[in-house]
Amino acid sequence: MEPAKLVEGFEFDDHTTSDVRVCFKLIDEQPEWFSCHSPVLSQNSKYFADRLGQNDIRSNACVEIECPRIEYDHYVKVLKLMYLPGESIVDSFDSVKAAVGVLRASNSLGCKSVTKGCIAYIEAASWDENEEEEILEVARSLGSEAESLLARLQAPSADAVKNVFISAVRFATCMETPFPPFLDDLKTSAQEQIDFMIHEDDDTALVTMDEDVRSVVQEGLAKLFSGLRAQLAMLATEFDLSPDQAEKRILCSLADIDWIANLLAKIEMMHSFVSGWSEISDNVLSVVQDKKYTSGLWAVKAKLIEVTGKALDAVGYGTVVLPASSRVHLLKTWLPYIQTTKRLLDENIKDEMSLQMDSDMFQNIESAIVSMVLAFPSDDQADILSEWMKKAEQFRYPDLTEAFEVWCYRTKTAKRRMVGGLNSASNPTVSFRA
């Protein structure tokens, strides 16, 4: 490194004018001596000022310092930087890694001007994750001098996190209108970062339970539902022009709805998703089941099963509590569609180009349906089960055998139970035991 300007007329490693030699000792290696000047060392380093103030050092005019091999180059650079004016130190670095190494060395030698230059460079540069860990380790030993570094490393305030979260939700749900297509990648990134931000911890819980955040999420959900309905309204025209593009747009809307369903499940807002999905179900099915799309839109049809599965799961296992009439309507609306679509997909499974569906997903949906049926009023259970048995040869899915067996047992014992209850009410018997 060539010095930008000599300090007090001295030049590093100038044998003709130096009055002290510095050596960074390495184990089992030949030491290298550097010619230095005591005024420069004393002025810029507390360590050297203390050492040079000792009589034995003055007489020998040399300073030996034990140095780890990995830090050797950094200590040597500290010596060189002490010969530069303070404003030039920042410009001497070309990487964060090098600046961190020099910062460690300068801190150990008590070189305030070099330490200040290192901090200024590091604070203004970008870091990777590994460098950040090193910076944090060094910063802990710097005291108040490290405030500018710690400002970037410290966790933001709850209000700051909340504001970013709200902005990300608005972006992830295309709430800003119009939403340019070229921002789709950024929308995906926003969704991914929201998923990362809601990993369970106390601070995140405070944000996601905030009413302002939940209100924006609710608004985003409504936006996505209305966006899907708008896409479906234009589907017929767009399908005639370009079937692939039309299907891609519908899939994009469903992918966003699928994403927000996962988000709502994590922040305990699935009731909003299930209610909204139930409201638009008739409209969605009336469009997708049109004869125009009998041999097309398979990816869309499959994605609809996946999204609906989340609603059925939430209702079937009690995450979302709905009146019996709403639960029955939801299942009766989607069950025939799920049965028909799965059968058609299974028939085409040998075709290498056909859409492959996740068997575990269908198993989960089947389990949720069984749970839902078992929680219906007995007459509604009878309607579902009788219809299921009528179509058993045509549709083998879902398997409601368990629900059927439970219904039969309950039917057999229901009258006896009710009669027994009435007799007990009219002839109460009280028994006391010591």
From TrEMBL:
<dbReference type="InterPro" id="IPR011333">
    <property type="entry name" value="SKP1/BTB/POZ_sf"/>
</dbReference>
<dbReference type="Pfam" id="PF25553">
    <property type="entry name" value="BTB-POZ_ANK-like"/>
</dbReference>
<comment type="function">
    <text>May act as a substrate-specific adapter of an E3 ubiquitin-protein ligase complex (CUL3-RBX1-BTB) which mediates the ubiquitination and subsequent proteasomal degradation of target proteins.</text>
</comment>
<comment type="pathway">
    <text>Protein modification; protein ubiquitination.</text>
</comment>
<feature type="domain" description="BTB">
    <location>
        <begin position="18"/>
        <end position="83"/>
    </location>
</feature>
<dbReference type="InterPro" id="IPR000210">
    <property type="entry name" value="BTB/POZ_dom"/>
</dbReference>
<keyword id="KW-0833">Ubl conjugation pathway</keyword>
<dbReference type="InterPro" id="IPR038920">
    <property type="entry name" value="At3g05675-like"/>
</dbReference>
<dbReference type="Pfam" id="PF00651">
    <property type="entry name" value="BTB"/>
</dbReference>
<protein>
    <recommendedName>
        <fullName>BTB domain-containing protein</fullName>
    </recommendedName>
</protein>
<dbReference type="InterPro" id="IPR058039">
    <property type="entry name" value="At3g05675-like_ankyrin"/>
</dbReference>
